[in-house]
Write a structure and sequence with these properties.
single chain; 320 residues; alpha/beta; Nitrilase/N-carbamoyl-D-aminoacid amidohydrolase; twelve-stranded mixed β-sheet; 5 helices; 12 strands; 27% helix
């Protein structure tokens, strides 16, 4: 239930993670979360994959954590010691498979989880789809959680609509490859379009649901491999940037605070009315909320197909 005075101080965290260095990343996240707490935040949104950035790299299967793990311990400690609601996602190994698990911890230590519904492109090499709705019951009412490309699919809006007071979202959104020299002019155009699309995503997500959205993200560079063909027959080097766009958005879709890629790691804090209102955007009757370019949709299909096989091979080979 909502309250007449439903304004709360919230924070979103932007991190610059190290690939496959869970220990370092947890210390980095904790430092930023404590900075948010020092500024009075009672709700703290962490990014998707806050334990490691993601690219095709064999070390990442070893970064999947069991249900009882140091990342969860850190969230519980921060929540219970400081009376905050805090959440973000990491790779969790459970019942023989890995999930992209958004874990939300309440001030009393209660833990609830949401597994991302569909892996995005290379992510298919490291986890399988989940089937939860992303709705968490808390002292502040229903909280909707979604990560990265969940926030640009109509099925996410449909499962959260009318059930939540506000949203906590996180992303790990790549730029176009920085190191590929062929078709450079076309890649530059795609990069500009990709960045422009991403900047609007947290605000539009709020508008589709009529709720405030506390959105956390990554920044910095990531290097690894890109699989062009199945069975890793042709992997090439890829260097990419993580695009930032950590934002606090009100229930009208107005961006109150923002960190861009260029701002680096940090924290934003704002006092926000967490009362839901009437959505200002109608959910389209199609799979994707935005009209994605053909090249993006092709990459989605091609990478999904290639990288699902990589996950199955890793599972058969006992890599996790």
């Amino acid at each position: 239930m909502t309250k007449q005075n439903n304004t709360h101080r919230v924070a979103a965290v932007q991190i610059q993670a190290r690939l496959a260095d869970v220990q370092y990343n947890l210390a980095h996240v904790k430092e930023l979360a404590l900075e948010a707490i020092a500024q009075g935040a009672k709700v703290i949104s962490l990014p998707e994959f806050f334990t490691t950035s993601i690219v095709l790299d064999d070390r990442l299967w070893g970064c999947a954590l069991p249900p009882e793990n140091p990342a969860l311990d850190m969230l519980i400690e921060l929540a219970t010691d400081n009376g905050v609601l805090i959440g973000g996602s990491y790779l969790e190994l459970r019942d023989g498979d890995i999930y992209n698990c958004y874990t939300l911890v309440r001030p009393d230590g209660t833990v609830t989880r949401h597994d991302k519904d569909l892996p995005t492109m290379v992510e298919n090499a490291f986890y399988v789809p989940g089937n939860t709705d992303g709705v968490h019951q808390t002292e502040l009412g229903g909280v909707g959680t979604a990560v990265c490309w969940e926030t640009i699919r109509s099925q996410t809006i449909n499962r959260l609509a009318g059930k939540i007071e506000f949203a906590m979202t996180g992303t790990h959104w790549w730029s176009i490859a920085n190191n590929w020299t062929f078709m450079r002019d076309q890649f530059e155009q795609l990069h500009v379009a990709n960045r422009a699309l991403f900047r609007q995503v947290p605000s539009n997500f709020a508008k589709y649901l009529g709720v405030a959205n506390i959105h956390a993200s990554h920044c910095g560079e990531v290097k690894g491999k890109f699989a062009w063909l199945p069975k890793r027959l042709w992997d090439v080097d890829v260097e990419t940037s993580l695009l930032g766009e950590t934002q606090i958005v009100d229930n009208q879709g107005n961006v109150l605070k923002r960190l861009s890629l260029e701002d680096g790691a940090g924290v934003i804090v704002a006092d926000v009315d967490l009362t839901p209102t009437t959505p200002s955007l109608d959910t389209p009757n199609r799979f994707w909320l935005p009209d994605l370019p053909l090249t993006t949709r092709f990459s989605w299909s091609q990478q999904n197909a290639v990288c699902k096989g990589i996950y199955q091979s890793a599972k058969r080979d006992g890599l996790f």
